[in-house]
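With this grant's support, we have settled on a layout for protein records. A representative record follows, to show the layout.
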Amino acid sequence: MDRDGHPSICPTNEDWIVTDTYPDKNGLAQLILFNKTTSQKFVIDELKSIQKYDNTVNRCDLHPKWSFDGKRISIDTMNDGIRSMYLYDVENKIC
């Protein structure tokens, strides 16, 4: 974990953290699942930002959030050119 982001601990298994990164020089932000006990790291997705909005009040950070049951993660994104929400099923990665 070598970049700043918005970490959140899994509500059902405290070994797992989800975090994001800010967009890199190519405009890609990563969604990362990390096990703090084993140091396993999964890059769940790389998502495009709209670079003209980066570093402005209109940017869209991913801000990952866990579902209450710890099986899914939701994010905000502009990957498709508009502000959207994505939902990821991560149950098979953390069990």
User: Anything to note?
Assistant: The mean pLDDT is 91.
